[in-house]
Automatic annotation (TrEMBL):
Organism of origin: Actibacterium atlanticum
Tagged with keyword Hydrolase: yes
Biological process terms in GO annotation: dATP catabolic process; dGTP catabolic process; dTTP catabolic process; dUTP catabolic process; response to stress; TTP catabolic process; UTP catabolic process
Family note: Belongs to the nucleoside triphosphate pyrophosphohydrolase family.
Gene3D superfamilies: MazG-like
Protein name: Nucleoside triphosphate pyrophosphohydrolase
Gene designation: mazG
SUPFAM superfamilies named in the record: all-alpha NTP pyrophosphatases
Keyword field: Hydrolase
Length: 275
């Protein structure tokens, strides 16, 4: 039910309005007669990329320990949920309360050792196993009988590869140790070296990345986190190369690979010098 204009204005401009304020702002933005034209035109598909982007910005703020920024980034991510819920309300599918209640029901059901009668005195490993049993039962209720059913297609490919492999490992489809994974990496590298046409090269490169994700899982490494760290290291070192070139009055475009490679090694060496 839409509230009166005066009541709506009051909550929209209430700096302590909390969640009701945000929901009313979103409703007003999507109002077909008085809302924002851009917001009105959006649908689930057009907003989904922004949702993914905001989730990454939350992760970035946490990684940088930018706690002052985190509040705003979490707000941006929350707004994405509110936006999707309002679009669902507009279509008569569900509303924000339904979203919150669904999550609450799920958390209560998945934590019987907190909200039920189960004993809390069990290991993290046992809790994880119990969690997976409950999730498997939920998938069965959704007629997702296959081992790999329910792994979201929209996940980043590297993360989805790990999740698919974890699912397969639960039913015994997994290498027993990292040795076999490393052997497979060598095999895939050889196949990539032998590939010639573009489609075959792309296929073999994909196989290589998939096995690398499997190695990360066996090593208990988050491949996304490892790659983010590698990206940050590359940026740091390349900026060091640029700084040293600037001292010589040059830019990378005015240099060559041999000079930049030598400067790269110098930057690496300086990183290893203790304070």
């Amino acid at each position: 039910m839409t509230m009166a204009k005066s009541d709506s204005d009051a909550i929209v401009h209430d700096p302590k309005g909390g969640m009701p304020r945000l929901l009313e702002i979103m409703r007003r933005l999507r109002d077909p007669e008085t809302g924002c034209p851009w917001d009105i035109e959006q649908d689930f598909a057009t907003i989904a990329p922004y949702t993914i982007e905001e989730a990454y910005e939350v992760a970035d703020a946490i990684e940088r320990e930018a706690w002052d920024e985190l509040k705003g980034e979490l707000g941006d991510l929350l707004f994405q949920s509110v936006f999707h819920a309002q679009m669902a309300t507009d279509k008569g599918l569900f509303n924000f309360d339904d979203v919150a209640n669904t999550m609450s029901d799920k958390m209560v059901a998945r934590h019987p050792h907190v909200f039920g009668d189960e004993n809390r005195d069990k290991s993290a490993e046992q809790q994880t196993a119990d969690w997976e049993k409950i999730k498997a039962a939920e998938r069965a209720g959704k007629e997702q009988g296959g081992t790999l059913d329910g792994v979201a297609v929209g996940l980043p490919s590297l993360l989805r590869a790990v999740k698919l492999q974890k699912r397969a490992a639960r039913v015994g489809f997994d290498w027993p140790s990292t040795d076999e994974v490393l052997d497979k990496i060598i095999e895939e590298a050889g196949e990539l070296r032998e590939a010639t046409d573009p489609d075959h090269i792309t296929e073999e490169f994909g196989d290589m990345l998939f096995v690398m994700a499997n190695l990360a899982r066996h090593l208990k490494i988050d491949p996304e986190e490892a790659l983010r760290a590698a990206n940050a290291k590359f940026i740091r070192r390349f900026e060091g190369v640029e700084a040293r070139l600037a001292e010589r009055g040059k830019t990378p475009a005015q240099s060559d690979l041999a000079e930049m490679d030598a400067l790269w090694d110098a930057v690496k060496a300086d990183e290893k010098i203790p304070d």
